Amino acid sequence: MLRLPRTMVTVHGYLASTWNNYPLAVYLRTSDSSANVAAFGYDSRAGVLADHATALRRFVDTALNCTSRCGGPEPPLGFVTHSMGGLVLAAALADVAALPPDRRSRGDTLLASAPTVMIAPPLRGSLWAASVHELVGLTVVAGPGTELAAMARSVDLAARYALPSSLPLLVVTGEKSWSNPILSRLADGRPHDGTILNDESIPLARDGDNAGADLACARMHVPGAGHSLLQFRLDVMEGVTEFLAKHSG
Hints:
Elements: E1 7-11, H1 22-31, E2 36-40, H2 49-69, E3 77-82, H3 84-97, H4 106-111, E4 116-119, H5 127-136, H6 144-151, H7 155-159, E5 169-175, H8 181-186, E6 218-223, H9 234-246
Parallel strand pairs: 1-2, 1-3, 3-4, 4-5, 5-6
């Protein structure tokens, strides 16, 4: 049996819920029955990214405390996010980086080194969200979705959510460009999963020699896989589990 991080937190995407990550959570628990998999939920159509990032940090501390009470060893911590969930985690990491060490919680101190898998994260915004927002306004794209739309038009906004070089990271992308010919045309043929362009999932480095450039990380690309169903695929679940086990310490 694989050894996974003692506490793993899943974060769903826009217009989704904790149930969207349930099959993956079951797969992770099956792979390591001693792991605590906690699903973080948030209202993706309300508030701003900063609100959800703060709530995620509190949730992580609660999940870590639960692991300790249930007799689990001191964690490592791990994350699996889908779509906007990756941006919520990136915002939490940015908040922690701005805090002096003596103001960080136990969860905060583990965040920047926790093995993390981001499935189709819009780390550089979303051209599709920006286009839909311009067309129909707040009817469809609301809450942090408006920030996601703005990021696609602003390199400076995207840079706010650059990731620390210490983060063990796997980025999973899909490709199903034929499913959204409108986005294909808007993106001049750049590959996408029907919602997020593959190059929108490339993280930026926050620190180190490559600060402001592409962050070196592991990548998994799944041709023929669409955005909303990526986390339900068996090959993705297997890749997620193997990465977390490899970096669980």
